[in-house]
Amino acid sequence: MNIEKLKNYNQKLLAILGTTIALIAVVGFVFITYFAIDEITRSNRYKNQEDGILSEEKIKELQEESKRKQLISYDIPRLIDTLNLIYVIPVSHKTLKSAEFIDDEEVLGLMDFSGSVKSDRRYSSQYYGDFNNLLIYEFKENSTKKLFADRVNFGNIEVQYFEDDILIVLEASNQDTYKDGVVNLMDLKSLFIYSFKQKELKKIHHKNMDVSQIKFVGNNKDLLIKFGVDQNGDGKYDEYSEPSVIKKYNFHKDELTNIVDENIDIDLQQKLEGTNK
């Protein structure tokens, strides 16, 4: 074969190969950028203050003008108790772009809206969104009741099944502790547990602390709870710069206790700061 022709062939082959690699790199970069932006957007969606419910101060300002800026919105019922046909209906809200005057007839008219039905998620044990209440709907009894009497905001509904009971577990904020005009998950959260057997809602709360993580102990209803300490008193917990503590919650006694002995706590802190070597 002519050496010159062989050189030309190799050059063309290298050019084609280089172009192909460059195209693959460009396509890969585009996909990585797209997914990175999408992940950041989804992460920020729940950090945005508009995701929460308005604070009492904001509500009073709007009420003085007979206005509102948020409307309730119902999600599709989710089957919790298959045998007794008991559902939960998450209640969320939509924030209007601008405040509107309150019209009682229009509020009632919201209940007449008929939309498309979503697919059944009856076997799911966790539901995510931006909610402000939860309804318990008993199909056989044709009765509906709301879980919370007060204004709250939560983003995750967890359902735990036991042999003798079903528990709904929520981490919710009910005060604008961060003082940004909105009650959302940036504020300090409490843990709420509703028992289908007892038909009772329990609140686990610790002053100036935020419910950060929970873990059920074995197959019983007791919990290990990680509380984030609002060390600087700004009304929110920063996991990167503020400490946390672990406590045990006894479900039947409705009692919250420490699991780390005070002497161990003091000893560890003193060793850390160098005052006890």
Structural class: alpha+beta
- Major beta-sheet overview: 9 strands, antiparallel
| Topology pattern, helix = H, strand = E | HEHEEEHEEEEEEEEEEEH
Strand content: 35-45%
What is Rg?
Answer: 27 Å
Q: What form results from the Cα inertia axes?
A: extended
Low-pLDDT windows of residues: 42-49, 104-124
Mean pLDDT: 78
Secondary structure tally, helices = 4
Helix content: 25-40%
> How far is the first residue's CA from the last residue's CA?
82 Å
Q: Find the count of extended strands (DSSP E, 2+ residues).
A: 15
Record keyword descriptors for this entry.
single chain; 277 residues; alpha+beta; 9-stranded antiparallel β-sheet; 4-stranded antiparallel β-sheet; 15 strands; 37% strand; extended
Description:
With about 280 residues, this protein is an alpha+beta fold. Helices cover about 25% and strands about 35% of the residues. The chain has helices spanning about 5-45, 55-65, 105-110, 260-275, and strands spanning about 55, 65-75, 80, 85-100, 125-140, 145, 155-160, 165-175, 180-185, 190-195, 200-205, 210-215, 225-230, 245-250, 255-260. Strands 2, 3, 4, 5, 6, 7, 8, 10 and 11 form a nine-stranded antiparallel β-sheet that branches. A four-stranded antiparallel β-sheet has the order 12-13-14-15, with no helix packed on it. The chain has a two-stranded antiparallel ribbon with strand order 1-9. β7 and β8 form a beta hairpin. The longest helix is centred in the first third of the chain and has 43 residues, at about 5-45.
